[in-house]
Task: structure prediction
Amino acid sequence: MSGILRVLGYIRVLFVFTVPFAVLVEESGKPGPEKREEVVQNLKEEMENIGVSLPEWLEGFIDPLLGLIVDVVVLLLNRAGFFEHSTD
Result:
């Protein structure tokens, strides 16, 4: 049980790191999928920097999991009106 709680704690931390990474990448003007992949890569690097170690069974799903976290954070930021979108 403590392993699951540890993973949930890491996911919470990753949500926090996603916000500044998403904001920085948003200003790049790249297409959405490229921005998403860049944020996922930034999160993976940050995980390595802070020593996040996930269980082996979760390692194979890290890219989809991080992508989902990015999607949720960007959705919430969009709903809050954080990002400005052109009407062109």
Remarks:
- The mean pLDDT is 85.
